[in-house]
Amino acid sequence: MGSFIFSFILVFGFLSLVSATIVNHDGRAVTIDGQRRILIAGAIHYPRSTAEMWPDLIQKAKDGGIDTIETYVFWNFHEPQRREYDFNGDKDIIRFLKTIQDAGLYAILRIGPYACAEWNYGGFPVWLHSLPGIELRTDNEIFKNEMQNFTTLIVNMVKEAKLLASQGGPIILTQIENEYGNVMWAYGAKGKNYLQWCVNLANSLNVDIPWIMCQQGNAPQPMINTCNGYYCDAFTPNNPSSPKIWTENWIGWFKSWGERDPHRRAEDVAFAVARFYQRGGTIQNYYMYHGGTNFGRTTGGPYIATSYDYDGFLDEYGNLNQPKWGHLKNLHFIIKSMETVLTYGNIETMNFGNGVEATMYTTNDNSSCFLSNYNQSVDATITFQEKKYFLPAWSVSILPDCDQVVYNTAIVNTQTSVMVKKSNMAENEPEKLNWVWRPEDINDSLKGKGSFTANSLLEQKIATSDASDYLWYMTSVNISKNDPFFNKQVTLRVNTMGHGLYIYFNGELVGSKYATGGKYKFVFEVPIKMKSKTNYITLLSVTVGLKNYGPHFDLEPVGIAGGPVQLIGSGNITKDLSNNAWTYKVGLNGEDTQIYNDFSHQLEWHSDDIPIKRPMTWYKTTFKAPLGLEPVVVDLQGLGKGQAWVNGHHIGRYWPTFMSPSYGCEECDYRGAYGPSRCETNCGEPTQRWYHVPRSYLQTDNNTLILLEEAGGNPTMVNFQTVTIGTVCANVNEGKTLELSCQGGRAISEVQFASFGDPEGTCGSFRKGTCEAVDALLVVQKACVGQASCSVDVSESMLGPSNCDSSISKRLAVQAIC
Predict the structure, then answer these.
(1) 734-817 maps to CATH 3.40.50.20
(2) Same CATH topology for 443-587 and 734-817?
């Protein structure tokens, strides 16, 4: 019934997009053509995938019960230089929105244009920082002019493409600014003025659909203020005419260099969603439905990893993340089937104590109920409507007819997919890649040759406008024989705002260091010996993503901003070099000559004696794409730190030597309020070893991988593999249906375990319980082996009678190999 109603709603939604749609709202819900709606949205950021991936990602979201796709607009992605715009290829946001429309879904466009999003500089173009007199995100005319120019540009583009709902397009909500209420206090009265200016700007753009402001408790009308967080059931809008909207349901967390992999259990996500709709919510958006990849130098932070998987419903590569995808899909269908009663029904709430609560929605024709137990440790049994109901701790039961429980958030009947990497090597492809190499030419920098000079230590954003991670600081020191530093061992001390630093003295690398522990300001000291001649000091400062969040985040300095840089001699004699004549050079020579685009061997590469552990080295190899259609990853284990390109496409920064802590990966219990450190994995391993290479980047014949190895590593271990399902498991209650599937055309080759009764354990460690049906394994093997997907009714009529006591709630546990 739920599936049918949901399909009808999607068809209705699609039909409504072909002509002008009236989007409005009251205090209960957003209305579309006068009808109150329950909407379930998912965030897919177009820059974190490729245009070729968009249709598949959007279709999988639709198949999972999503009816609305949400995305930010990334200002620095489209205006990298002032008044120079780029909306081509993977930056074609109009194509992305039309793909949403083609799928029959709605869209939420969060223009901002401040995004945060763990994106470099929060999505602001760094050239803003250098405009004289500018102050970002406040009542500053220079900033407001730039923001208005870009915001108006985006609105005019979607209007021209007729993508607003008022024009028959998919966009039903637009957002101005982003989470400003979290930081507005830091901007004082100018912040309040800026907030009102944002409202006036939005209203002046005449989009004829509602505007939202997330995390803005004092949002002026007609803005709808919305909630972001792990749980938003208790959120109340600041105006009775505003519906309850959850713009960011954080279904996991992002990964940072040096940290473990964060996860959020499907049971807890479902609990949070069900509670939100139980308590009057009508629109919620998953952040992220598909997280994707921070290609190129787009990561913020600093120290955000290249993977932005986020433990989303679709993994970084676009595979279904099971059981999360399937468990929430089932919830979506049920919630959508209750749309009318949830948006028009009278609401009655009953409190049973100890965290147990019942909510009944009633219309003249129907009633639907939620029974929730938000006690995190104690199960409950209650009598409701003269029937007894068992409520596991930290769960919500949904009764669409206020009688029969059709879904409990803590009971997962969906398969668990264990993903694996497979080589799938093309025919005649050698087992090991053949490499050539060339050094990064740094001789000019070592001799102090740059492009401009200043008598101070410049802040790196100002000097580079973020055109590169790298900035060279170069100076020289003349030492006479009478100087107290002459021919003495001294200490070169550099105070830097991070994130990394390489120190060269008289042409030799004498030390390097990266910030650790989240503290990006550090002091680095190295011993050197001064000579009675000109001594060259060359400092290479390296960034790893610019800060993207916080009050005045844009003013966070990076690089050797002001230093000081000092020579420290015996007796603590100090020579301050901070006001020397410093020469600067932005980036590396290899970046200027675009070595990463050398596909035809036009440059000179060395093929013998491949060096390892050599800093500032370029490596190059050719390879054939792995067979099949499954996602491709490159294993960069063995390398140090650097950047990688495939056929000229920048697949991101890599840093496999940065290990996660060896502690903290304990068994995860979904019960209780979630935090990013609760359900972590990958202890004691590289933060990120595998890097996504989208299939659209690959050619049918030879492909080129080029690495800039900054820190020194060994490329001989690098290899390409595909990502697929290795093991599938399920633990399905009696009365439900077991559904298993592989992917990529693979079939189930073996059923390792199947027991219908009271099996124990979890995927990877199932074991028989006290009772079972003796033929269950044979039945599952017959139904599934050799099939790409299979289904089995979990019942005694299908699996055979068991010897279980009548008090036991039977279930079928299965583990199989694809």
Answers:
(1) no
(2) yes
Strands 68-72 and 106-112: parallel
Distances (CA, A) of 713 to 516, 615, 619, 650, 723: 20, 8, 10, 19, 25
75 to 43, 86, 233, 317: CA distances (angstroms):
17, 10, 32, 24
CA distance 607 to 628: 31
CB 178 within 8 A of CB 125: no
Closest by CA to 527, choosing from 507, 505, 559, is: 505
Distance CA 497, CA 501 (A): 10
For 178-213, give one letter per residue: b (16+ CB within 10 A) or e: bbbbbbbeebeeebbebbebbbebbeebebebbbbb
Q: What is the DSSP string of 384-411?
A: ETTEEEEE-SSEEEEETTSSS--EETT-
Beta partners for 436? 620
Place of tokens 């009548």: 806
Contact 228, 247 (CB under 8 A): yes
Best CA proximity match to 560, nearest among 516, 518, 513:
513
Q: Provide the residue ranges of all domains of the chain, joining segments of one domain with +.
A: 2-408, 420-440+592-722, 443-587, 734-817
Nearest to 376 by CA among 284, 236, 272: 272
The CB density around residue 592, as the number of other CB atoms within 10 Å, is: 11
Q: In angstroms, what CA-CA distances link 568 with 298, 482, 488, 490, 760? A: 38, 17, 11, 6, 66
Distance CA 81, CA 360 (A): 55
DSSP state of 360: E
Which of 146, 248, 259, 710 is labelled catalytic? 248
Q: 346 near 40, Cβ under 8 Å?
A: no
| Inter-residue contact 286 to 42 (CB < 8 Å) | yes
Give CA 541 to chain center in angstroms.
Answer: 27
The pTM (predicted TM-score) of the whole model is 0.96
Does the annotation mark 179 as catalytic? yes
Q: Domain 420-440+592-722 is of which CATH architecture?
A: Sandwich (2.60)
**DSSP assigned state of 179:** S
CA distance 500 to 541: 6
Compute the distance between CA of residue 245 and CA of residue 68 in angstroms, rounded to an integer.
Answer: 13
State the CATH architecture for 443-587.
Sandwich (2.60)
The alpha carbon dihedral of 438, 440, 446, 450 has a sign of positive
Which residue, among 628, 625, 624, has the nearest Cα to 746 in the 3D structure? 628
| Active site (annotated) includes residue 348 | no
Compute the Cα dihedral for 644, 645, 646, 649 and give only its sign: positive
CA dist., res. 496 & res. 293, Å (int): 29
- Cβ neighbours, 10 Å, residue 505: 21
The encoded tokens of residue 322 equal 């099971």
Topology at the third CATH level for domain 2-408: TIM Barrel (3.20.20)
Listed in sequence order, the DSSP H helices in 499-620 are: 589-592
**Per-residue tokens: 82:** 């002032």
Token reading at 719: 């290899």
Q: Which of 179, 267, 440, 772 is catalytic?
A: 179
* Averaged pLDDT, groups of 10, the chain, 818 residues long: 39 52 97 98 98 98 98 98 98 98 98 98 97 98 98 98 98 98 98 98 98 98 97 97 98 97 98 98 98 98 97 98 98 98 98 97 97 97 96 98 98 97 87 95 96 97 97 95 86 95 97 92 95 91 97 97 95 93 98 91 89 97 95 98 98 98 93 94 98 96 96 96 97 96 94 96 94 96 97 96 92 97
Omega before 288 within 30 of 0, i.e. cis = yes
